[in-house]
Amino acid sequence: MGIGNDETPQARERKIRLFWTIYSIERQTSVIMGHPTMLQLKDITVPLPQRRHDLDKDGFQRVDRLVAFTTLTMVMDEIVNAGPIEQSSTTTDWACSKLESWKQSLPAHLLSAQESSFRANAHLDIMYNMIWVNIGRGVILRLVRKQLHPVAADSRSPECDEMDLRSQKLAKRCAESATIIIDWISQLYSRNLLAKFSFTDFHTCSSAIIVLLLNAILRAPYHQLLPITRGIEALRFMADGSTLAMNALRLVERLQGAVYKTTSVGSIDSILDQQQSSLAPLGQNLSQSVAPNPAGGVPYLAAASNTAPDIAPLDLNLFADLEPSLLGYSDQYLTLFGFDGFGSTLDPNFAM
Question: What pTM did the predictor assign?
Answer without folding.
Answer: 0.82
